[in-house]
Amino acid sequence: MPFKTHNEGGIWTGGGTEVPNCNPVEIAAIREAFRYCHDVIIPRIRAVRGLEDLANRISQMTEPIILLDCRGSVCDANTAARINARGGREITLCSKALPPAPQQSTDVTLFHQLILACNGTEFDAWALENFFYHGHGTVAPDSNPQIIQNNVFIESTTPVAGDKNKRISEFLFWRANEGKVFVKHQMGGTWNAPPVYTEGQQLNIDGMYIEHGYYYILL
Predict the structure, then answer these.
(1) How many CB atoms are closer than 10 A to CB 114?
(2) Cα dist. 151→78, 95, 141, 179 in Å?
(3) Rounded to whole angstroms, what are the CA distances from 195 to 6, 187, 198?
(4) DSSP summary character for residue 150
(5) What is the 3-state secondary structure (H, E, C) of 175-218?
């Protein structure tokens, strides 16, 4: 189910032709974003100890299993893309992430949505995007005021053992009061004992924006 279509040339009794909502130039940009992710980024993810599961998940996110749309009803002037749900398989790219915007904008926006498709949270998507696409189109979340106003970082992470300064997402461990992000390691966990979460490799993310987002929320 690669690209969402609409009917052109038909009448109320039928007929017409199914045409992709994305034009040929947009389709080419999206396919290049998939290529860049699979050829360049996934090997980088796999090289980070503790992110092998993410690499395996995102390697399965290919055009045949993702329904892609362009400039759908979920788009507005402030939106680059939307996915139908966390863990969903329907991604809409908006004008901000499509030609004539630079290819890097399409690349990084698609990756962000693929992290969500892998059941990552918005915290995962912003942080991993900033780490793996640094210098390749990523932007700091605090450039979007909705990230701060909607408590996105806090809402998409969970305190560790009740400590609000140590928080986890699907893939990451966040020392929120220090603005430091690590790969999340999970040990143990049974029906009567919760798992223990620890910090793995630290990721050199633009810590200022993580910390900046944190203090805007909690002070």
Answers:
(1) 25
(2) 17, 25, 12, 15
(3) 48, 6, 10
(4) T
(5) ECCCCEEEEEEEECCECCECCEEEEEEEECCCHHHHHHHHHHHH
Tens digit of pLDDT for each residue in 63-84?
899 999 999 899 998 899 999 9
Report residue 200 as tokens: 């793995």
Place of tokens 């017409």: 16
The full set of domain ranges for the chain reads: 15-119, 147-218
Q: Are 59 and 137 in contact (CB under 8 A)?
A: no
Return the ∠ at Cα 152 (arms to 126 and 215), rounded to 5°: 95
Over the stretch 156-179, which tens digit does the pLDDT of each residue have? 999 998 898 899 999 999 998 888
The answer for 104, left when phi > 0, alpha when psi is -120 to 50, beta otherwise, is alpha
